[in-house]
Amino acid sequence: MLWVLFLLFAKPTDGVNVVQKLKHLLAQAESSSVTLQCEHDKTDYFSMFWYRQTAGAMDLLAYSGAANSATIEPPFKDSKYTMNRPEVLKSSLEIKNLQSNDSAVYFCAASITH
User: Fold this and answer.
1) What CATH number does residue 97 fall under?
2) pTM exceeds 0.85, yes or no
3) Residue numbers of the domain that contains 74
4) Count of domains observed in the chain
5) Cα angle at 24 between 23 and 26, to 5 degrees?
6) pLDDT reported for residue 59
7) Are β-strands 18-19 and 47-53 bridged in parallel, bridged antiparallel, or unpaired?
8) Confidence band for 2, pLDDT divided at 50, 70 and 90
């Protein structure tokens, strides 16, 4: 039985509070999915981003420029990641079919521009 550890951090952004409810998450690999939640408090911060940091790199996974819009970045496109943005202040990132290499630090960020 494999377990996947997720460490969750909100990326500090000047003038906006970005909050991820969970600080860490432990999930069983190969049979689970997880959904990471993020929110912020400024309606003029139209863009939201999800990053994944591993030992070797920090990668942009997905971004959204408006509510009900999201793009998964290559090489993660058409994969296990789904970003949802139901409203300007909230976003989620779903990771399906967990594997041990999904263990990482996941960051959420908000911005006025792309």
Assistant:
1) 2.60.40.10
2) no
3) 3-111
4) 1
5) 160
6) 93
7) unpaired
8) very low
State the greatest distance between any 2 C-alpha atoms of the chain, in Å, as a whole number: 44
Q: pLDDT tens for residues 63-83?
A: 999 999 999 999 888 778 999
- The 3-state DSSP class for residue 100 equals helix
pLDDT band at 91 (very low <50, low <70, confident <90, very high): very high
Cα–Cα distances in Å, from 56 out to 40, 50, 105? 28, 17, 12
Query: Pick from 105, 86, 106, 104: which is nearest to 39 by CA?
Result: 86
104-111 sheet: strands from edge to edge = 24-28, 3-10, 104-111, 47-53, 58-64, 71-72
